[in-house]
Amino acid sequence: MHVGQKHAGKVGTALMADRVSEKDVRHVASLARLRIEPAKIEQLVRELNGILEHMDVLARVDTSGIQPFVPEKLDAMPLRRDEGPSVPLARPVSDIGPEMRDGFFLVPRLATHEDDGSHSS
Amino acid sequence: MSSSTCDLTAAALAEQVRSGAVSARDAVSDACSQVDAVHAGRDGLNAVLWEDRPAALAAAAELDRRRSAGETLGALAGVPLMLKDNIATLGLPTTCGSRILEGYHSPYESTAATRLREAGAVILAKTNCDEFAMGSSTEHSAYGPARNPRDATRVPGGSSGGSAAAVAAGIVRIALGSETGGSVRQPASFCGVVGIKPTYGRVSRFGLVAFASSLDNIGVFGRTVDDAALALHTIAGHDPRDATSAQVPVDDYRAAASDGVRGMVIGKPREYFPDSLAPDVRDRCESALRALKAVGAEIREVSLPTTEYAIPVYYIVAPAEASSNLARYDGVRYGRRVPRASLADMYEATRSTGFGQEVTRRILLGTYVLSAGYYDAYYRKAMDVRALIAAEIRGVFASGVDLLFTPTTPTPAFALGAKTADPYEMYLSDIFTVTANLAGIPAISQPIGKIDGLPIGGQLLAPHFAERRMLAAAYSLEQALGVSS
Amino acid sequence: MSSAAYEMVVGLEVHVQLSTATKAFCGCSTDFGAAPNSHTCPVCLGLPGALPVLNQRAVELATRAALALGCELHGRSIFARKHYFYPDLPKGYQISQYDQPLATRGAVTFASGAERVTRSVTITRVHMEEDAGKSIHDRFPQASAIDLNRAGVPLIEIVSEPDIRSAAEARDYLRELKLVLEYLEVSDANMEEGSLRVDANISARPAGSTSLGTKTEIKNMNSFSAVERALEAEFARQCAMLDRGERVVQQTMLWDAVRNEIRPARSKEESHDYRYFPDPDLPALVLSDAWLTQIQAALPELPAARRERMRTAFALGAQDIEVLVASRELVDYYEAVAAAHGDAKAAATWVVGDVLAALNHEKIEISNFRVTPHDLAQLLDLIRDGRLSRNAAKQVFATMRATGDSAASIAEREGLLQVSDDAALSGWIDAVWNAHAAEAQRLVAGEQKLLGVLVGLVMKESKGRADPKRVNQLLLSRAAGGGGG
Question: Three-state DSSP class for B75?
């Protein structure tokens, strides 16, 4: 893990005109596991740029030294004791899963360790 | 339906059920008749998505049996009600108005639903909403748009349009909705009913299907302020299953009816009354303010300069959190799955056909603002401005202002299809409501009059956890205006 | 150039499963071996509307580990969402601390290599996160099977600086880290069972250089020796590339334990973009100074301190100390024996020698060993007091292991107790003296070598029960006295 690298860069330029390109839409769609019809991409580029244009106003706001937003009375998280029971399921998992066998959820076969590299644990 | 129990307030109905003057079964039966009478189903208002009348009648009969066995029933004894389809219930589907959860029955129940049932309420149906509560018109439902009972050519508002419509159509006195940017108050305004968004943390979110977790609240609709106050009182309070549920005692909300507003300072934020505000809306608001003044409130002009940032902040924070919250709909464990030979194809086919256009748009927007290189410019910046907005609101309340009054919506209900072409135009419907969500403060919308026969709502905003003070003013205003819903 | 011209630079990321009874964010059991998906609930299945609530014990164990590693604990830390799609990740994101972790800047100090050089590796951070479920790829044809029993089990990730310079050093670091975790009782820390998992970041640079080369990440190592072999293999691969003037590509490598080789992971084209943001479902984790002080005070003695005490208070040699301290239970056992018996050296000889040999032979842990420290101490007492010969003691010890009976009762029962009572001894000596008068006379005459012969004869006469030391003394005094009775 390399904290700090991910969020660096592009900060100054992100709020300029035509921020979202077709390539961005395709990239973001693939991150979100959404397939966008090629014919729809142009429209989405336009819409997203149209929306983000209205966000430019935020760049002008001076937020230096502002304390992070914290909801009222929720400054610290409550902790639970290390004990059950968990919230019960009114129906067994086997009634919920779209495809199950021997108690397992089934998905299309993955090669061993095929993953997006993040799957460290 | 002059003799229908639908005309009784929730409190009065519960009282009569407890005393045995009215049976819970009759109350539920009357509500079912009203569903048919107003055509609330798919072929009509399309306010009701899923109902199970036999189950509801059986639950009511069980309440009657318990009463005759000598048990004391709760504050909502025999009161039929409806829940927005994004609140998990046992027995009825929980689809969030989405294709991706079509046929999904939650195997557990939301805390709010449990508390309502424990108070004796009978959950009659799940109501239509914009898909995953993303929308301001209930047109973005996978199960077709809902319609406004006051004028079926118009939207009921959204995203909790089905619940608002069900209350407005006289089916139930109480319904639950959910708010992320105004999804209870805006439809309340459009449908001429009362809608409350409580303080963030006041009502457990456990079992509320997440849209934008830092903004989401379960809210209540009531035909009157008292109906809404009773509903809120029933579901409010700390829940150990929700780490964002506040450990703050719950006030007696219905007792606010006799609190009055004498001596209260009600702020009128000038940014909510811009020159561009429709004169009719301004006029109804001024009438309401005069009515509040007449019963002892002091009206004071205030300024909230960060108001202009509310919509931009909201439309960064909410889609960002939505893109994260909706990642779980992958076809693996529950809900829709489109079978494909590879996992990647299964994910994409399931999600692309399962989510509608508006949800897709927001997931893309949210993914974009969280993605590498843009986080600081968008999400972090938006959250920082959100902190400024919240600080400004706190500052106004700390300066001796007890409540704020604003219009709920810039216009009455608009026609179906009027705003679906331009997403941002639709987003502006929330312009007066989002600040409460961003700051986490409670707010209520109640009818303050009509414009060309269509209802319009006025909004009271209160400091965190000052629901009782807010309701005191709402009761007073309701009485002073005598607005019939 | 060969590998010798390069220096290995390694940083390790160690995931450790915390020994809690329930999962990190829900009340499901963390027990292994249950039927698939039987330890699941709305929260760890990622059902719509479910919310996480953090396990206090997990925080306690993580804090204990971080304090023991000398880290700076942060009174306020934040849980973020790390997004990626994988079927065993139910929510589409992992709840993990990110830019505001529980603890930073610690160190593990350990003795490395044959020379036992003291080395220190800096710990960059210790953060809390939840585990994913298990994907099983070889159970069904054409399908991968998902079991979410492990999903949501609490982990800490211990990230080191790239301070490690060889595969052996990596192994020694891991051994010490594992030992610390075992002493703390925060985890089983078993690599083979997956409760301790290691990923390595490795780069090569010309010897003497201070800049860092391009690194790769190695995953899928399931034992310390696999870590060693994988690092050697990857280092050799990188060195060879550098020798050929090629560039090392930053990528994820997988260790194949069956083929004993390293190969690149099949990686998607899109770069990783986890879209971290603070989890809005979880307020900040706030730890009070008082609580931290309490945890710190309750920390057990750690391996380094234990070694030091073994050296100073028990005067043990380095070899014995290493063997004993390598297991907290073993060293506890040893200390109990030493305390009860009094002779620390003798206790060490027995525990490191006979006890460990017995454990190896029986393939059991010290916790299952039948001989209690008290009984072993009694055995040692009998040896010291001359009541049991070394050989008889071995025999008694074997019976103790088999029966769990006390040393004294076995020795008594089997007639193995040595006789040092002069009256009894004199009887046997008389018999030998008379039967072997010639030899006796030669001893009386000063022929010392006959002493051994006579002692042997007396031992034989006593069937081994005579205390040879006392027999020795008695024979000498009899000889000095002229051989009279």
Answer: coil
Q: What ipTM goes with this model? A: 0.97
H or E element at residue B360 = helix B357-370
Which of the following is catalytic: B29, B136, B159, B323?
B159
Chains that touch A (3 or more CB pairs under 8 A): B, C
Strands B454-461 and C79-83: unpaired
pTM over 0.80: yes
Residue A33, sorted as left (phi over 0), alpha (psi -120 to 50) or beta, turns out to be left
Burial (Cβ within 10 Å: 0-12, 13-18, ≥19) of residue B294: exposed
Residue C104 tokens read as 């930073």
CB-CB: which of C37, C59, C219 is closest to A120?
A: C219
**Cα-based distances in Å from A31 to A24, B4, B261, B396:** 10, 54, 53, 42
Chain B contact present for C460, CB below 8 A: no
> Residue ranges of the alpha helices (H) in C260-343?
289-297, 303-312, 318-325, 328-341
| DSSP β-ladder status, B80-84 and B122-127 | parallel
Instruction: Retrieve residue C233's tokens.
Output: 């293999």
pLDDT in tens, chain B (485 residues): 446 898 999 999 999 999 999 999 999 999 999 999 999 999 999 999 999 999 999 999 999 999 999 999 999 999 999 999 999 999 999 999 999 999 999 999 999 999 999 999 999 999 999 999 999 999 999 999 999 999 999 999 999 999 999 999 999 999 999 999 999 999 999 999 999 999 999 999 999 999 999 999 999 999 999 999 999 999 999 999 999 999 999 999 999 999 999 999 999 999 999 999 999 999 999 999 999 999 999 999 999 999 999 999 999 999 999 999 999 999 999 999 999 999 999 999 999 999 999 999 999 999 999 998 899 999 999 999 999 999 999 999 999 999 999 999 999 999 999 988 888 878 888 899 999 999 999 999 999 999 999 999 999 999 999 999 999 999 999 999 985 54
Instruction: Provide the token pair at B479.
Output: 């009485």
Please state whether B20 falls in left (phi above 0), alpha (psi between -120 and 50) or beta: left
Chain A residue numbers with beta carbons less than 8 Å from the beta carbon of B371 are: 27-28, 31
Compute how many other C-beta atoms are within 10 angstroms of the C-beta atom of residue B406.
24
Radius of gyration from C-alpha coordinates of chain B? 21
The tokens of A77 are what?
């998280």
Q: Which residues contact A69 (CB under 8 A, 6 or more apart)?
A: B383, B384, B386, B387, B390
Terminal CA-CA length for chain A: 13
Distance CA(B43)–CA(B470), nearest Å, equals 38
The one catalytic residue in B163, B183, B476, B485 is B183
b/e sequence B107-143, b meaning 16+ C-beta within 10 Å: bbbbbbbbbbbebbbbbbbbbbbbbbbbbbbbbbbbb
